[in-house]
Amino acid sequence: MIHARAPGKVILMGEHAALHGCPAIACAVGLYCNVWISPHEHRQINVQLPDLSFQHSYAPEQLADYVSHVRLAWEHYRRVPNAWSYAQLHAGAPDHLIKCAIGEILLRLAPQDWQGFSLRVQSQIPTGAGFGSSGALAVTLMAALSQLFRLTETDYPLEQLALSVERYQHGEPSGIDHNTSLRGSVVEGRRDAKGVFSLRTLMPLPLNLPPCNLRIFNTGTARESTGQVIAATRYRLEGAENTLLASMRRNTERFGLLLQQSRPMPETLRAVIRDYQADLEKLGVVPAAVARLIRAIENAGGAAKICGAGALTGDQAGALLVMGAEDVPALSRYQRIDAPFAVTGLEIETS
């Protein structure tokens, strides 16, 4: 039995802008995705998703063929990144990422090396809410499958394997989600003009921002997936002299500097959070109901921002970072995430 688990994440600052070369700062959160794999002698691949009451068996040829088609759809999306081309990835199917992950591994092996196994996935991470559920799933799947098929880190780097799956969910991910699940703690990442992703670990969050100062709430699953929101709004951040992108970059860099101070001023932190939230509202990814909640928090002396892609419509936008003003009555209707911040990343064991 191979068991892999990795934490979820929240983007503290830098969402959306990260797709355009700006930094993103993310924190691993103690909500976990777990994957178990047990090999068996016959060639069938059995998948169990008890959280979704889903189970199915596949021939390996089916999964290799599936991911071959998804690869073509992704290449088209990369050339023409819009809502229609994203829809061709079929990212909403419950077993989509499972099939993609297994298929990607199989296509890296000779058919005579394919073997059957049973795979079970259970996750504490809310889906479609900015907590990095697909990134954690990509990391745990590829870690467990690499162990099963004895793939070496030298020949098949786990970060690259996870990215190959994550892109089938989000189109062109920034890289921050799966890297945070892989590494843990608090990280800053950015992708340069050549597409090279660099990552550095910042000082662990509890040393600088005690948990009593920052809370995460879940406003609920957004109507649209992350990929749909990105496909619909990314054009608003394009252009060499884009003032909205410049503001997002400036606020993220300010926030990163504050995290590294021994005692950052609370009022300065609140100001940066408010400013980035204003950027997200200009981008059009904060539904009116969530914006009203954030105004109530601000009027009570606090600050709040969505963490992740947000939403285009509806009343829910996923994760919400709140600093102060937790007694605002409107917050009581939302689930508070009482999980630790800055936890360790991927863990894997065999038995």
From TrEMBL:
Pathway field: Isoprenoid biosynthesis; isopentenyl diphosphate biosynthesis via mevalonate pathway; isopentenyl diphosphate from (R)-mevalonate: step 1/3
Domain GHMP kinase N-terminal: 97-178
Keywords: ATP-binding, Cytoplasm, Kinase, Lipid biosynthesis, Lipid metabolism, Magnesium, Nucleotide-binding, Transferase
A Pfam short name: GHMP_kinases_N
One GO CC term on file: cytosol
Lipid biosynthesis keyword on record: yes
A molecular-function term among this protein's GO annotations: ATP binding
GO biological process, one term: isopentenyl diphosphate biosynthetic process, mevalonate pathway
Residues forming coiled coils: none
Cited PANTHER family: MEVALONATE KINASE
Name this protein carries in UniProt: GHMP kinase N-terminal domain-containing protein
